[in-house]
Design a protein that fits this description.
The protein folds into 2 domains: 1-33; 37-76, no CATH class. Helix content is 76%, strand content 0%. The protein has helices at residues 3-13, 17-31, 37-56, 64-76. It is extended and about 55 Å long. The protein starts with a helix and ends with a helix.
């Protein structure tokens, strides 16, 4: 890591949690290439489909804690 990068990191680590999260999100987003219009359109359609299914009551929703526990168990082999 360059000295400039080390200085930026040191400054960023002094920020509060919310500010660090914002900086991290922006840095990660900067690594992505330009948006793919076809992918964006496909995601919009998918999101609308999922919202409609939720509103129609045709899908079973699960609490985040249950989903998180199941994923952790799968990853950790429990």
């Amino acid at each position: 890591m360059t000295k400039a990068a080390e200085a930026v990191l040191a400054d960023a680590l002094r920020l509060d949690l919310d500010a660090r999260a914002e900086v991290a999100a922006e840095l990660l987003a900067s690594l992505d290439g330009p948006a793919d219009p076809d992918a964006e359109a496909a995601w919009k359609v998918e999101i609308e489909r999922r919202v409609a299914a939720i509103e129609a009551g045709t899908v079973k929703l699960e609490p985040w804690e249950d989903v998180k526990r199941r994923i952790e168990n799968q990853i950790l082999g429990r």
